[in-house]
Write a structure and sequence with these properties.
By secondary structure, the chain is an alpha/beta fold. The protein has one domain: 3-Layer(aba) Sandwich (Rossmann fold), CATH 3.40.50.970. The chain is 26% helix and 17% strand. Strands 1, 2, 3, 4, 7, 8, 9, 10, 11 and 12 form a ten-stranded mixed sheet that branches. Strands 5-6 form a two-stranded antiparallel sheet. About 8% of the residues have low confidence.
Amino acid sequence: MTFVAKPRVHHPKLPVNELGLTRRDYEGSVSTLCAGCGHDSVSAAIVQACASLSLPPHRFAKVSGIGCSSKTPSYFLSKSHGFNSVHGRMPSVATGANLANRQLYTIGVSGDGDSASIGLGQFAHLVRRRINMLYIVDNNGTYGLTKGQFSATNDKGSTNKRGVPNLYEPIDLVSMALQLGASFVARSFSGDKNQLVPLIQAGLQHKGMAFIDVISPCVAFNNHNGSTKSYDYVRGHAHPVVGVDYVAEAEEITADYAPGTTENVSMPDGSTLRLRKLDDNYDPHDRVAALNYVQTHQAQGEVVTGLLYVENDPMDCHDILRTVQAPLNTLREAELCPGSGPLERINASYR
């Protein structure tokens, strides 16, 4: 895979944050995704969120699996630690990285195929273990790297660009995250920067498992009934965006609408995505009510966006396991090998 570096020369008067860093210092290489891809908007939102919070880039561990979305860590935080793992196995790597060094901010970027298909089991166990990280899913309901097959989040009855319907029920990762105990659950749209950036900021500062599902349109293969993920796309016409091996440029899709309202967003293929933003009086502290709210509006063909649930007093994996504060690679032999006396007492406690 070839990465294109951005020019080192930039305007000397760029604004700086509290660390003296510009937004350029939080960027990565030039994106190789299709022009207009929603995933690039998510990367830009991560850059903006980290820069505005004045977080040191070298204090980040960014991990991903396989897919269009999993390429994106190359496009933000170039001076951070990164690991591109195998398909569906990002949660294992993220778990190891976070347990080894709790002083790092851990960001996992995945896709609807990477998390809802081959990586579904890994996603489920990462959530229930409350790994202290921000987990972002770029959800477009399709396998873009392999020419647009349905992903597991696509709606039953929706069709691909050849008119073949999806025969299976969708998997809703937001509902799973709520049911499995994530202490921060949100959903947003890649084109709604005003909503997405604050959610990422909150997720980065949250102690515990923070999950954000981002509806991120695929400009190349999104010519069926929407981005799915058990959301109802109102189809326009089944007109392919691209030829077999050619991806036409498309404008970035944006949206800006008031809380408590519904917005229809036109997709590149002529279909329409219906988004609903949470009301100002919505209570995000009731897990059961949040799940009911999501599923009720889902049945009405609306995609609920915003902060869906946050735990008042969250616990993370380090609280559960009572891990040490220091990174594991800084522990000395005396701390790792306490002697025969403590080991005998530990063994006795298991008898």
